């Protein structure tokens, strides 16, 4: 049976062009980028070119890009590294974030509260998943040092108003961090236009390899390392650099610069076809997240009277890969903290299905998915009705 | 010009069999190991097989292996994660290590001293680089919770007496961590025979990919995560798992189990040929590290009257990749902390050259290196003499 992969927010296949770019760095150009001989310098130069590709995609300078082992590490480096920096600790211990952040942000904030004496405000969101800007503005205090709000939500796809957050903050000495893991490739991103000081990026969500990410840190922003060792990545992230992974990330960013806009347009069209197709044929479905301010690939739907888990298993048996929200929490049976914050009643939230499209998704796949989903929902609702649930 | 790569302690080429094992996981079997659909389960299962290969090579159980982004992260997870665990913090704040550890251990210990209120004893070593066991035994205090001593030194190759450290510690509630990054593949390793509770491993030093490592944590050892996020790696290391990298690490360990002993024997013979060749033809050379208790691939030599930097540049011009000690500190001009701890006078330490052989190294390469090194040393010493230095 053919796999229909509609879980691109969990991870993406690596683009064949990216694999081709990476390959020489495994077996031929394998130097350690810190070595001073020619093999080392070659690796170092390749890493520099990748840094330029990543920087250029988000309007940053190459020396503001720090490579990490992935999005989670970048979030931790941004939040622990900024809040834990001795100068910032002296300035204040208040952090503002939202209730719908990825767990890499939420759990890091909770750790700082529990073990480092920080105070964290978790701002609410409206029914579309948009952060409450009034609450955010009202929660800014004299000891606020950091605001961390994601650029696009990983479960429901809503794009958050980062520019407005910058406007509210003004020139107060509060750093703004945004987790842009789900936004990269899905919208034009410019760190200066958004006015953010730190931005988390990950390669494997944009057809690059797993195990590599980056943190943009605006020049002058005080961030200390969270791991200790050699002087790699200008003393912010020790450890032998993952040269093939970094080269692959650079190539993936190049491809986004080249093809991103066209892919987005196509994916948005297919996503709309999917949502409209389901809406037309299935009753009692709601689209989660903002109706228009959302990333193109995301369709998050709640099916009343269905368990998301059951939907996933039935779709999987039909070859369709989907998710109930976030891959990082998929082993957990707790209802989504994002839907809860949006005020979605728990009995509806249990019927959530996240379909996230990619550049390889075809119209035929979408039509097959609409057909399959229609009959799967019928079947599950039929069983529930028969059982009197 | 052909490259003669004698810097395998800095990094190794990825074995073509390893690349072949990794390749499908980029483009075909690309699921997120946390996803519950078939693509996710496939990735999860592949990771499980890799975990078994890594575990089996060091006599551990698969559920004692935690994958990380590399050796530096593993060292940080072991030391920060153990010392920072609330239960261990209550038990004590004293850590014992050696003066010749990798900076990932030393700088982590210094961070804990500076910012977390820990007390660290840095034990000295003898002229061969072997830790002073009397000093170690005498420094154990009631509040000692952790001992971290490397299994083999990255600069001079000396193998440290971990079994004796276990004997000294006895059944006191002190965890023993060892950084085995340079030892893996170079000697038989069994965590139970050594009596260690945590062991750091890295893939790219053993013909696996960069950007992936592991920490062995003996069952029952309390280690908290140093990053926060999803529940990956049984809540010790969040972030989407680097499936291709992990699969590659597993394959690299399989190859070590299959070919390791034969490769070691061959490499040791070539290393001896190299050392004897140089000793026979160049005056005023000393071999650093223990004469016999050393890893097979390492030849660390000090050439009196030569700058290590000059040696490296001349060798590089002849196509030979070597190092002055550790790639992680190669950008720094400070003399080696390892040689200093061994009591090597600074004027001798400045003439250090580390040649580390690999499974691709040939007799012809060794003979060419001996010839080249002989003439390069003559040349540098001639210039120094002419300048009256």
Could you explain how this protein is built, in words?
The structure is a homodimer of 389-residue chains. Chain A has 389 residues and is an alpha/beta fold. Chain A folds into 2 domains: 4-11 and 260-387, Aspartate Aminotransferase, domain 1; 16-255, Aspartate Aminotransferase, domain 2. Chain A is built from 15 helices and 12 strands. Chain A has helices at 16-22, 24-27, 38-57, 71-83, 86-91, 103-116, 133-139, 162-169, 191-194, 232-235, 243-281, 308-317, 337-341, 346-349, 363-387; strands spanning 4-5, 65-68, 94-98, 119-123, 144-148, 175-179, 198-202, 213-217, 285-287, 298-303, 320-321, 352-356. In chain A, strands 2-8-7-6-5-3-4 form a 7-stranded mixed β-sheet, sandwiched between helices. A 3-stranded antiparallel β-sheet of chain A has the order 9-10-12. The first copy, chain A, has a two-stranded parallel sheet with strand order 1-11. Chain A is globular and about 70 Å long. The first copy, chain A, starts with a strand and ends with a helix. At the A-B interface, helix 1, helix 3, helix 4, helix 6 and helix 11 of A face helix 1, helix 3, helix 4, helix 6 and helix 11 of B.
- SSE order of chain A, as H and E? EHHHEHHEHEHEHEHEEHHEEHEHHEH
For the sheet with most strands of chain A, the description reads: 7 strands, mixed
What is the C-level CATH assignment of the largest domain in chain A? Alpha Beta
- Number of helical regions of chain A: 15
**Helix-and-strand structural type of chain A:** alpha/beta
């Amino acid at each position: 049976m053919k796999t229909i992969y509609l879980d691109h927010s969990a991870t993406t296949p690596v683009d064949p062009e990216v694999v081709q770019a990476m390959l020489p760095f495994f077996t031929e150009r394998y130097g350690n980028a810190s070595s001073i001989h020619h093999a080392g310098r070659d690796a170092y130069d390749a890493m520099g070119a990748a840094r330029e590709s990543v920087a250029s995609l988000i309007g940053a300078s190459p020396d503001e890009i720090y490579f990490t082992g992935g999005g989670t590490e970048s979030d931790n480096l941004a939040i622990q590294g900024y809040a834990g920096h001795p100068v910032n600790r002296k300035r204040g211990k208040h952090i503002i974030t939202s209730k719908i952040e990825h767990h890499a942000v939420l759990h890091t904030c909770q750790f700082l509260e529990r073990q480092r004496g920080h105070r964290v405000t978790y701002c609410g969101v409206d029914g579309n998943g948009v952060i409450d800007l009034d609450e955010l503005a009202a929660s800014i205090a004299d000891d606020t040092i950091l605001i961390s709000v994601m650029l696009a939500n990983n479960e429901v796809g809503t794009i958050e108003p980062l520019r407005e957050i910058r406007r509210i903050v003004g020139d107060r000495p509060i750093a703004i961090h945004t987790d842009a893991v789900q936004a990269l490739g899905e919208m034009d991103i410019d760190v200066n236009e958004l006015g953010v000081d730190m931005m988390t990026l990950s390669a494997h969500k944009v057809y690059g390899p797993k195990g590599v990410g980056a943190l943009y840190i605006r020049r002058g922003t005080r961030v200390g390392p969270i791991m200790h060792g050699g002087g790699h990545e200008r003393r912010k992230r020790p450890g032998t650099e993952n040269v093939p992974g970094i080269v692959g990330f650079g190539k993936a960013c190049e491809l986004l610069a080249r093809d991103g806009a066209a892919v987005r347009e196509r994916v948005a069209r297919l996503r709309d076809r999917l949502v409209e197709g389901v809406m037309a044929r299935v009753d009692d479905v709601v689209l989660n997240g903002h109706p228009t301010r959302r990333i193109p690939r995301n369709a998050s739907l709640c099916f009343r009277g269905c368990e998301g888990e059951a939907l996933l298993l039935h779709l999987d048996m039909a070859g369709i890969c989907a998710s109930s929200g976030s891959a990082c929490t998929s082993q957990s049976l707790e209802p989504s903290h994002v839907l809860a914050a949006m005020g979605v009643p728990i009995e509806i939230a249990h019927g959530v299905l996240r379909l996230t499209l990619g550049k390889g998704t075809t119209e035929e796949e979408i039509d097959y998915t609409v057909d399959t989903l229609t009959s799967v929902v019928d079947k599950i609702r039929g069983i529930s009705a028969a059982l009197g649930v």
